[in-house]
Specification:
543 residues; Immunoglobulin-like; Phosphatase 2c, domain 1; 2 domains; six-stranded antiparallel β-sheet; 13 helices
């Protein structure tokens, strides 16, 4: 048996336990108290402890000790395994769980799928360089391009007698040290696609005598930002009905029409096509503008084709109907526009719009569904293989007002917003399903002989709004990360914030440039945890 005695001082015993637990934790091992005691009694461990005593005798009590300053190595989670969502990499303990992306990275380079957010395996234990300074400081992992803020605990023995005089190399990482608050903080620089270990030289000085200094090491891992871990895989070249991964259009008008659609990260990572689509058109007179947006069902094999057919067909059908009925519509609108009283004029315009535009809008929706059914029959597949949502609107200006006739089936969002006044109108209700992520699609049962027009009336809206009003149509790839809930979709303040802080702040809308479409494409690449679907956004305004 070893000659190392059991300490009588409980504080010494606790310190020894922390040293052993730290070594185990750095190798991903957690043990209970009984196991810890058995480990401590094993000859190699006791021999190591005896060596500490002998070194102390030789050096006059000045033996070097590696001290773990983490909060509690026992609390460290086990290393992540490939495919485990939300895993964290912890060096020492005390890693924050507030950020569910911190410490995550891609599972393996040859992994074919990365779920909603790629996962980082724990770095191998041998990747941590071995140093023998007086002290070693262990801190939580950081994540590139994420705020880092950690207060070091120097209250335990033997470091309680010291303060941190300096930490070298922080600038290269993007961090700074506040000696008064003993706080490590900053914004870690973008790094590689793998966790990067940092071993930083620390100088400690005695609180009672600054001339007495000791060397220490601070161990810190910086994990890559999750967005850098997504793959961009091209769809199989043998697949038909291809479409570009990005598409945008900017028509200065009036009105200005700006639309963009981009492939989501989940589809990039899975090597599939963009399922969203859009289409815009104007009648021969230039008075009517029609815009349509569609989101193909993720479970539908050919939804990318269904969304294209739906948007193109409904726009063409509605424009054709408006041109056929142009004479009657123009006469009715001219009569209403001649009314001097604003309230009476708007009431009359709303009455005319509901009477004259319900049928053309409804038939446009029906035509889109019929085109999908016909295509499915041609390809020899079920109609649901081309399932897609659909929202579209026809707009024209009459004096100081804008008339908007719209239809909406499925999720996403369609709304009218006047930024100056805060005027807001949601153009329907998002369709939810029995389970999360489910919705309704433009399928033939929506147009059954018995209830077709009841269904159309439910989804039809006609609005008369000030000319400064903006029309916004978006798929759920935009509405879900920006609004999240149906209640938020009904909140005018959330829409005004979306306009002011996102669109108006990040896009030069006041002076549309030729590349405004590509700028909107870039905006749609915004990062939102767990939200990686295709994104399509349409914007129409007169001023």
């Amino acid at each position: 048996m070893s000659n190392f005695p059991t300490p009588n001082d409980p504080a010494i015993e606790v310190a020894l336990e922390r040293v052993i637990r730290c070594q185990l934790a750095l190798n991903g091992i957690n043990v209970d108290a009984a196991a810890l005691n058995r480990i401590r009694q094993q000859l190699p461990v006791e021999g190591w402890l005896d060596g500490i005593v002998e070194a102390g005798k030789r050096d006059g009590g000045g033996a070097q000790v590696i001290v773990d300053l983490s909060i509690d190595p026992v609390a460290e989670p086990p290393p992540a395994t490939e495919g485990t969502a939300g895993a964290e990499v912890v060096v020492g303990a005390g890693a924050s769980s507030d950020d569910d992306e911190a410490g995550t990275a891609v599972a393996a380079a040859n992994d074919e799928s990365v779920g909603d957010d790629p996962v980082v395996p724990s770095p191998p234990a041998e990747a941590v360089p071995v140093h023998k300074p007086l002290f070693r400081l262990l801190v939580p992992n950081g994540t590139a391009e994420r705020d880092y803020d950690h207060v070091l605990d120097l209250s335990g023995e033997p470091v309680v007698a010291y303060r941190i005089a300096s930490i070298e190399g922080l600038d290269e990482i993007g961090l700074a040290f506040d000696p008064d608050a003993i706080r490590l903080h900053g914004w870690p620089h973008p790094g590689s696609a793998k966790p990067v270990p940092h071993e930083l030289a620390v100088t400690l000085e005695r609180k009672d005598d600054a001339s007495i200094q000791e060397a220490a090491t601070l161990s810190l891992f910086i994990n890559p930002h999750p967005r850098t871990l997504w793959k961009q895989i091209e769809p199989d070249e043998a697949l038909e009905h291809r479409k570009p991964h990005r598409h945008s259009q900017c028509d200065p008008g009036p009105p200005m029409v700006l639309v963009a659609s981009v492939r989501g990260r989940s589809h990039e990572n899975g090597g599939s096509f963009r399922e969203d689509d859009f289409h815009i058109g104007r009648d021969a007179s230039g008075k009517w503008t029609v815009v349509a947006v569609s989101d193909g069902a993720g479970s539908a094999q050919l939804s990318r084709l269904g969304s294209r057919i739906a948007t193109e067909t409904c726009v063409a059908s509605l424009l054709a109907a408006l041109e056929r009925e142009a004479a009657g519509v123009e006469a009715a609108l001219a009569e209403a526009a001649s009314i001097e009283d604003q309230g009476a004029r708007i009431d009359k315009l709303e009455e005319i719009g509901k009477q004259l535009l319900l049928e053309p809008v409804g038939r446009a929706a029906f035509a889109a569904n019929k085109a999908i059914r016909d295509k499915a029959a041609e390809l020899g597949v079920e109609e649901k293989s081309l399932a897609a949502t659909l929202m579209f609107a026809a707009l024209r200006r009459v004096g100081n007002e804008v008339l908007v006739a719209s239809y909406w089936i499925g999720d996403g969002a369609a709304a009218l917003l006047e930024p100056a006044s805060g005027l807001f109108r949601l153009l329907g209700e998002a369709d939810g399903g029995e389970f999360s992520g489910q919705t309704r699609f433009l399928l033939s049962h929506e147009f059954s002989r018995e209830g077709a027009w009841d269904s159309i009336r439910k989804r039809f809206r006609f609005s008369v709004v000030p000319a400064a009003t903006v029309l916004l149509l978006m798929t759920d790839g935009v509405s879900d990360p920006k609004f999240g809930t149906d209640n938020a979709l009904r909140d005018p303040a959330r829409w005004l914030s979306f306009w002011n802080n996102d669109l108006a702040a990040q896009l030069p809308l006041s002076e549309p440039a030729e590349d405004l479409g590509s700028k909107l494409e870039e905006y749609l690449q915004f990062w939102s945890q767990g939200e990686h679907d295709d994104r399509t956004l349409a914007l129409v305004r007169w001023s």
